[in-house]
Design goal:
Number of domains: 2
Radius of gyration: 21 Å
Shape: globular
CATH class of the largest domain: Alpha Beta
CATH topology of the largest domain: Polyamine Oxidase, Chain A, domain 2
Number of strands: 16
Helix content: 25-40%
CATH architecture of the largest domain: Alpha-Beta Complex
Distance between the termini: 23 Å
Strand order of the largest sheet: 7-6-12-13-14-11-15
Strand content: 15-25%
Length: 476
């Protein structure tokens, strides 16, 4: 029987372990923390019974993941829940860009931009399941659906600023810009449209879902299935050198490239070591969870029904803040993402006290305290919010890295998603999961298709490893 060691038990490490175990490989997952899950963990905080997601929270890419959906995780308790409205981007004065799952409903609310939104997203949303077969794999390979991918992919090479000019209203520009800003990149850079287009299209197909019972439910379901497949998990084991790795036919690293380089040292080919040690990191996330009595008193009524709220004002203001953080300067009014998961999953609340999940984009390694900036941004669009806060907890950029070593400097994306790293991953190669050492692979969110609880980085890497030990296997 073939054997495998998976170092790191985040969603991608677990996905790799499941893919290998399903093919009869004897798998052991080694996790440094006391529990697996990486960013897909949840726990009670502030008020007993109040359930907060630690990092990964809203899942437009995971709910439609062909890999996750093929595992039958509903048998292990995974249930997806959808909010009434996916996302709202409020503006000063009370108006907002409103993103519904329906393209038509979204377009109807955007006035003069309705027809433009429809032209941009109706066809890709209808074909998203086919598109995802290609965009959720390494991009530099022959696609399953070349014409469909070409039509979808052409606009993705544009800067977000160029695509935003398609829309004439403040609401339309801000709505697109807020989603594109999930890339943690200045929006005038090429390819920054890609993240916005991908998330919006996925959401129009499958919705911005949350996991019932918290993102921990995704992890719990994967762990339960892995156990049924004979896989093992050992926690509290921090691998820091190659000498700690048990002998195995396959070794997977759900780690940042620099950590892989540190573990393997001279075993890595020089070109790979150089690429991994020079891997570029992105800006940070400063996270604050709140216990809020009665919910957030948003001025815009649609925001009170939305699972996600983006706070940045107009598109031009948002673009300016993203330029600032990329330059290492903390803006007075940062981009703040707000998660109201309890609207789709009421069990997370305790009576009339609700958990509010927020984080701000901040410079990489930011050492200040962004709590007041986050509160002020919410208060800007929801006067009276401050008076409803019953308590809060903070996870700074430093604490982010302590919580998950992949999040160096608060970089929850596991690397800057610039053109080179978004397309190739940690190094310039057609095989982004290979580390240049026989039987060893990297499968973290630093590799294509990137961050999220979709598990595709791990699943893709595992398929490569399986083909190496069974050459008659074909790419599916």
């Amino acid at each position: 029987m073939s054997t495998a060691i998976v170092v790191g038990g985040g969603p991608n490490g677990l996905a790799a372990a499941l893919s290998l175990a399903a093919e009869g490989v004897q798998v052991t997952v080694l996790e440094a923390a006391d529990e697996v899950g990486g960013g897909a963990r949840s726990s009670e905080a502030i008020v007993p019974g109040l359930l907060h997601d630690h990092c990964s929270a809203i899942h437009p890419m995971a709910v439609g993941s062909q890999f996750l959906n093929g595992l039958g995780l509903d048998r292990y308790g995974l249930r997806w829940r959808l909010p009434e409205i996916d996302c709202v981007h409020p503006l000063d004065g009370g108006s907002a860009g409103v993103l519904h799952r329906s393209v038509e409903q979204t377009a109807a609310g955007l006035g003069a931009d309705g027809s433009r939104w429809r032209r941009a997203f109706a066809r890709p949303a209808a074909r998203f399941d086919a598109i995802s077969e290609d965009i959720m794999r390494p991009l530099l390979r022959f696609p399953h659906h070349p014409l469909t991918l070409a039509r979808f992919g052409a606009p993705t090479v544009l800067p977000g600023s160029a695509f935003a000019r398609l829309f004439s209203t403040d609401e339309g520009r801000a709505l697109f810009g807020g989603v594109a800003a999930h890339a943690f990149r200045p929006l005038h850079y090429p390819l920054t449209s890609a993240v916005g287009l991908g998330i919006i299209t996925a959401g129009h197909r499958h919705g911005w879902a949350v996991a019932e019972g918290g993102s921990q439910s995704i992890t719990n379901a994967m762990v339960a299935l892995l156990g049924d497949l004979g896989g093992k998990i050992e926690t509290g084991i921090r691998v820091e050198s190659a000498s700690q790795l048990p002998p195995a036919d396959i070794t997977m690293f759900d780690l940042a490239p620099s950590a892989v380089a540190g573990i393997l040292g001279d075993q890595l080919p020089r070109r790979v070591s150089r690429a991994f040690t020079k891997f570029r990191r992105g800006p940070g996330a400063f996270k604050v969870d709140f216990a809020v009595e009665g919910g957030v008193p948003w001025t815009n009524p649609d925001a009170r029904r939305a699972g996600t709220v983006h706070l940045a004002g107009t598109y031009s203001e948002l673009a300016a803040t993203e330029r600032e953080i990329h330059a290492g300067r903390m803006p007075e009014r940062p981009f703040v993402l707000v998660g109201q998961q309890y609207l789709a999953d009421p069990q997370r609340s305790v009576g009339n006290v609700h958990p509010l999940w927020t984080y701000a984009h901040v410079p990489h390694g930011y050492t200040g305290d962004a709590t007041e900036a986050i509160i002020s941004q919410i208060e800007r669009f929801a006067p009276g919010f401050r008076d409803r806060i019953m308590g809060h907890t903070v996870r700074s950029t430093t604490e982010m890295a302590a919580y998950n070593p992949n999040y160096v400097g608060g970089d929850i994306m596991t690397g800057a998603k610039d053109i080179r790293q978004l397309v190739f991953g940690p190094r310039m190669t057609l095989s982004p999961y290979s580390v240049g050492v026989r039987g060893m692979y990297i499968c973290s969110a630093a590799t294509p298709p990137g961050p999220g609880a979709h598990g595709m980085c791990g699943a893709n890497a595992a398929q490569l490893a399986l083909r190496a030990i069974s050459p008659d296997r074909r790419d599916g």
